[in-house]
Amino acid sequence: MALARYNLLTEGNVKTLKGQKKGFNSVILHFAPSTVSGYQVCPMASAGCIAACLNTAGRGGMIKAGETTNTIQEARKRRTRMFFEQREQFMALLVKDIEHAQRRANKLGMTLTVRLNGTSDLPWEKIRVGEHRNIMMRFPQIQFYDYTKIHHRVLSNHLPSNYHLTFSMSETNQPMARVLQGLGHNVAIVCTPEVKDKALATGAIDGDETDLRFLDESGKIITLSAKGKAKKDTTGFVIRRY
To answer: What is the DSSP letter of 41?
Structure first.
């Protein structure tokens, strides 16, 4: 199946494609993470998170010998700068992309889902779109979801009903992760295969099966296998003991 072309959104992420087996077609917005673009989009990123960032996974990490970047990385930087410097135009393009994605999902007979923080952690619930308080209110019929390291986003009583957040644990926020899970929120961990097996045996959810976090039972640990640079993590970001 040929992938659709968008101005800002990406379709065809290996993990999100798995959701098609469950009837969901997902699109993701990728920014240049942390301060790579000159703007901070990951305010709570830890050293381990930055070192293991999936920004360089897949085609994003395919850089020719002797070069330091590629077209994907440069596009993510331009996209991020546009968001901060030309917000109105950016949001107008985002609306058009989501409308296009909805038409495509309808054509495929699937349900559209949108993840806006593919490689960022921005509070989209606070970002206006024209007369609407946020993009979720602009598209109330669409399911949005994200991972976040900002705990008060997870605890907010003002999240749109069609926006699901999963707390992302790092080497610096483990106490807060335990508190949030105790309150019934889901917590994603990046871990080794050995830890993953033990966690799954005690009721954790395999987050590698799909990216559809809004379908998860509440109060669960979501296990994500260490990939790419994360496999060599020494900061404590990757959980190696359960």
So the answer is: S
Q: Is the pTM of this model over 0.85?
A: yes
Strands 24-29 and 9-10, bridge-based pairing: antiparallel
Dihedral angle sign, alpha carbons of residues 233, 234, 235, 236: positive
Rounded to an integer, what is the distance from CA 136 to the centroid of its chain? 16
- Please tell me the distance from the alpha carbon of residue 203 to that of residue 4, in angstroms, as a whole number: 37
- pLDDT digit string (tens) for the chain, length 242 residues: 678 889 999 998 888 888 999 999 999 999 999 999 999 999 999 999 988 886 555 554 545 555 556 778 899 999 999 999 999 999 999 999 999 999 999 999 999 999 999 999 999 999 999 999 999 999 999 999 999 999 999 999 999 999 999 999 999 999 999 999 999 999 999 999 999 999 999 999 999 999 999 999 999 999 999 988 888 888 999 999 88
Alpha carbon distance 115, 105 (integer Å) = 15
Q: In angstroms, what CA-CA distances link 101 with 8, 93, 130, 186?
A: 11, 12, 20, 28
